[in-house]
Specification:
The protein is of the alpha/beta class and 291 residues long. It folds into three domains: 1-95 and 196-215, D-Maltodextrin-Binding Protein, domain 2 (3-Layer(aba) Sandwich), CATH 3.40.190.10; 102-183, Periplasmic binding protein-like II (D-Maltodextrin-Binding Protein, domain 2), CATH 3.40.190.10; 216-291, Double Stranded RNA Binding Domain. Helices cover 32% and strands 26% of the residues. It has a five-stranded mixed sheet, sandwiched between helices. The protein has a five-stranded mixed sheet with strand order 7-6-8-5-9, sandwiched between helices. Strand 12 and strand 13 form a beta hairpin.
């Protein structure tokens, strides 16, 4: 039996798929093959995501491939997966989560906080750009898109002082050595589910029972709490939204950020980890109450 794994073509997406393939091979001694799929989000790289429909653009074509039985499962960056996935599918596993933080990559290794006034920072994310301007109102945000390597190349091509990327992606690519600064979650609240991978399958797929064994419960409930926050706010990449949940024994701590009536509101909440869905919704309602 060979498991067909749908993946985007980018190097990072394939590294993520290879990670899951290695786990499946080691755990079950099953062979896998990648099915590389072009998504709309990958084809249109000259405009920001909020202009062309949002994050679902990175998963739809892969879901179609699963419905057509061209792929058995898909490996996604969970931050690319909308909270309202089609009813035909399920996220069967969320393995151990990587670093959730955003990272600053500077061409000349100058710290973000030591950049000159008016420095040009590249990011396509409204969430990152908005929070960067709170930390440094003097900098200029320059929209950039493309895979990790393309964005790094744009530092020189577009005369940028640096760019913001997810630390998880750089670490998975073995490129953590180029990180100049990490932003702690209190400084820049991460994207919903940042650092987490999700394995999506058609419901009741014959192989779903073994893939479910790859699930990390702690990672799952933290990601689901963050997605509950997003679902309550009906949020997407069209505005500044972020959340991060982490565990301290039986207590879940959460921080969330969202734009309310033109103002950026950041709130925190803690509670019993078993109430993770309710905690995400409660944090969203606390944010909606505003300042």
């Amino acid at each position: 039996m060979k498991i067909k794994i749908g993946s985007r073509r980018s190097e990072l997406a394939q590294v993520q798929a290879n990670t899951i393939i290695a786990i499946i091979k080691e755990k079950y001694n099953l062979d896998c093959e990648k099915v590389l799929i072009d998504t709309k989000g990958d084809k249109i790289i000259n405009v920001t995501l909020d202009k062309i429909g949002g994050k679902g653009l990175f998963v739809k074509e892969i879901e179609y491939a699963m419905l057509d039985q061209k792929a058995d499962m898909a490996v996604h960056s969970m931050k690319d997966v909308p909270y309202d996935i089609p009813e035909e599918f399920e996220i069967v596993a969320i393995p151990v989560r990587e670093d959730v933080r955003d990272a600053f990559v500077a061409f000349n290794n100058i710290s973000f906080y030591d950049l000159p006034k008016g420095a040009r920072i590249g990011t396509s994310s409204i969430r990152r750009g908005t929070q960067i301007k709170i930390l440094r109102p003097d900098v200029e945000i320059v929209p950039i898109r493309g895979n990790v390597q393309t964005r790094i190349a744009k530092i020189e091509k577009e005369n940028l002082d640096g760019i913001i990327l997810a630390a998880a992606g750089l670490k998975r690519l073995g490129m953590q050595n180029i990180i100049t600064n990490y932003f702690e979650p209190m400084e820049i609240v991460p994207a919903i589910s940042q650092g987490a991978l999700g394995i999506e399958m058609v419901k009741n797929h014959p192989q779903s029972s073994i893939i479910k064994e790859l699930d990390c419960y702690d990672a799952r409930i933290c990601v689901d709490a963050e997605r509950s926050f997003m679902a309550t706010l009906h949020g997407d990449c069209h505005d500044c939204i972020g959340a991060y949940a982490y565990l301290d024994k039986d207590v879940m701590h959460m921080i969330g950020v969202y734009r309310v009536s033109g103002n950026i509101v950041k709130k925190q909440l803690s509670g019993d980890k078993n109430d993770y869905i309710k905690l995400g919704a409660a944090l969203a309602n606390k944010v909606l109450e505003g300042n």
